[in-house]
Amino acid sequence: MEPRKCNEHGNYRRATTQTTVRLQNWSVHTVSLLGSIAETQDILGFEGDVLDAFINGSFPASRCRSRAA
Q1: 64: Cβ–Cβ under 8 A, 6 or more apart, which residues?
Q2: What angle do CA 27, 33, 38 make, to 5 degrees?
Q3: Torsion of CA 53, 58, 63, 66, to 10 degrees
Q4: What's the confidence (pLDDT) of residue 18?
Q5: What's the CA gap between 17 and 40, in Å, rounded?
Q6: What are residue 64's phi and psi, to 5 degrees?
Q7: How many helices (DSSP H) and strands (DSSP E) are in the chain?
Q8: Is residue 59 a contact partner of residue 53, using CB atoms and an 8 Å limit?
Q9: Which among 12, 18, 27, 58 could disulfide-bond with 53, CB atoms 3.0 to 4.6 Å apart, if both were Cys?
Q10: Mean pLDDT confidence for 12-19
């Protein structure tokens, strides 16, 4: 087999450029997900506390009634 010719530098350049672009996009996506994960954990923790308090009867009765009544 013959070795590849040097005219393929354009392919390497395109591959390197695409790799760089994809890595940057993935990094931005990952950082934004970290913020969403933390926020979701806070919300789920709060919801769990509310449900536990509701199940245990820790809520005052006035908070559980409809305000329209």
Answers
A1: 54
A2: 135
A3: 70
A4: 92
A5: 35
A6: -95, -10
A7: 2, 0
A8: yes
A9: 58
A10: 89
Q: Which residues are within 8 A (CB) of 39 and not within 5 positions of it... i.e. 6 or more apart?
A: none
The sign one gets for the Cα dihedral 12, 14, 17, 23 is: negative
Is the full-model pTM beyond 0.70? no
Tokens of 14: 């395109």
- DSSP reduced 3-state for 8: helix
* Distances from the Cα of 13 to the Cα of 5, 7, 9, 46, angstroms: 15, 11, 6, 50
Tokens of 8: 């393929």
> What is residue 58's three-state secondary structure?
coil
